[in-house]
Amino acid sequence: MRSSTIGWLFLAPTLLILLVFGMLPFVYVLVIGFTDWNAFAAVATPHFNGVENYRRLVFDDQVLTALWLTLRFTIFAVVSELILGYFLAQLFMRDFPLKGLFRTLHTLPLMVAPIAVGATWRLLTVPGLGPLSYYLERWAGIEYRLNTYASQAFFTTVLMDLWHWTPLVTLTLLAGLSALPKDPFEQAQIDGANRFQIFWHITLPMLRPVILTTVFIRAMDALRTVDEVWMLTGGGPGAATRYIGLHIWRVVFPKTDYGYGAAMSLLTLYLTIVLCWLLYVALVARKRSGEDSR
Amino acid sequence: MKGRGGKLILFLGWCVISLFTLFPIYWMFLISTKTRVELFSMPSFLPGKFHWDNYINVLTDSAFQGYMLNSVIVATSNALLVTVLALLATYALSRFKLAGKDNIFFWLITNRMAPAAVFLLPLFLLFTKVFVLGGISLFDTRTGLILLYCVFNLPFAIWLLQGIMDGIPVELDEAAMIDGASTFQVLTKIILPLAKPGLAVTAILTWVFAWNEYLFAATLTSVEARTITTGLAEFVTVTGTNWGELAAVAMLTLLPAVLFLGLVQRNIVAGLTFGAVKE
What we know:
The complex is a heterodimer of chains A (294) and B (279). By secondary structure, chain A is an all-alpha fold.
């Protein structure tokens, strides 16, 4: 066709930037993770120390707690977003006045900077200032203090994530629902299936690829949440909302224990990939076995 | 839910849902227009007398002006750079026979999936100790951020433009080639005008993503290249209790999102799902 040299020339700057700023840090963190590099150590030159950093990680309670909290946050957030998003997507499947405008408004949180989302929620929840704390205390008699009660802080971060990301789930599920063929639904109605049967036996199986993609993307994003939570709770009270990204950034970084920090970064990356892979396999395998049994 | 009654119920339902979506932002706006004294009285959901002092204080503060300027420069330069590079890259991937280009495309896209926190440490070390030329490092420079933001913005832009580029018939550039046009002329005279809407969406969304970024900016800058998002975070840790100004800065931070919302809302979902979901 055409000289491929020109093609490579066009591609070169993109490849170069992504190699230097995308690949190199990955290789670098891999290497540092096997050293005892510590900027404040008596001997500042890094030495190879094998898997020592990884051995330490397995017994580091703070890390294990952070990982567990992150997982709990991800599960709570993604599951509630799926349920709420599905409900809202179904509402968008019908016709009503000003639908386009409502859709646009619904997209708004997706565009807002995560750090501003955190600021917004902080202003809603600060005692004495935010309406949430004021009315919960006044009407429900609940003492609402994010910097005192761990579970309140945890569920508020989940709620904030719901506000920020449910629109994404709504819109992906809406895209999936709109693409479904009409025939199976009409046939099921003729056969006298009730609403739940239609949902369970027709909508859900046909929507599975879209649900899978949505869960995958949301889970990956939720696992790396940092900005919003940092702004809302600062990881507290104590370490109650110190998710793994926050832990790496706020606890490991200031210590300049580079080798250990690198190992922890890699472990996090590895666990993220494994978790997403497991999720994928679980959902795909279930689909396969369902097909076999038929 | 058929007929008029059903539509009315749905309409009212969506009014309530939108209220939930908008309320946090509306509340922040209210806070940003109140004086310190008014803040800690009983929460009122109705706008009182508007005081613009918080905005005036923030906008006339020289440190904050620097943050704003940095954010504008970083986001704009990054958006332009990314759009141009993505145009060239997608043109190459779409029109040239390149060995292993499907693998290259896949590798380009995966760059977007990397969790930022994982790469903070290696990037910090690279920026302060390795990317140093004649005593000048990339740390705390706008150039550093502009180049780094390519890591998440380029894959997105390439994915978005690839579809558009493949949609432009090859016959058009072949006809121009026969008429003696050079590759560069084909790109500027044929491809560019046809890809314009797609390029605009790409530029706007990459601009917003760069503007919104916080974690890299917070870690890889210290004084000179701080951006508006890092400035917003500083309010909580340093000034602590000046909620009015915090709200004003937060309003300014989310302004671009609101301004560009209508233009790109159809593309943002596809963009955030790596193109897995198309509308």
